[in-house]
Specification:
Distance between the termini: 11 Å
Structural class: alpha/beta
Strand content: 15-25%
Length: 118
């Protein structure tokens, strides 16, 4: 039976590299990304869902589409805002907390039973 991995934020950067390595290792990978992957080959073992992990309801809707045991969760989605804290808008800080802290909680909460199945 093919192993299944869920990766958040795998449309570029480190997440893309992790995705590609897991695909080479024979996993079926579900990518949960805020924006679509620009250049993704048609790969039978890769499924992409567009979802902002900071939105609990959207995460629930997306996770309901996954119906199999999950062997691996890679909680890679994250955002960074650089600059002086005195110049950081409150909205940027709040969104950072939503993506970087709440997002992983939402994903794990919604998919935990699938992880336990594996």
């Amino acid at each position: 039976m093919k192993k299944v991995a869920i990766i958040t934020g795998c449309n570029r950067g480190a997440g893309e590299g992790i995705r590609n390595q897991l695909l080479k290792a024979g996993y079926h990978v579900y990518g949960i990304n805020r924006t679509p992957t620009k250049k993704v080959e048609e790969i039978d073992s890769y499924t992409e869902y567009i979802c902002d992990v900071s939105n609990a309801e959207k995460v629930k809707e997306t996770c309901k589409k996954i119906h199999e045991p999950i062997n691996l969760l890679v909680l890679n989605a994250g955002i960074r805002k650089f600059g002086k804290i005195s110049e950081l808008p409150m909205e940027d800080f709040s969104y950072s907390v939503d993506v970087n802290l709440k997002g992983p909680f939402y994903i794990v909460t919604c998919l935990l039973e699938h992880v336990k199945e594996a």
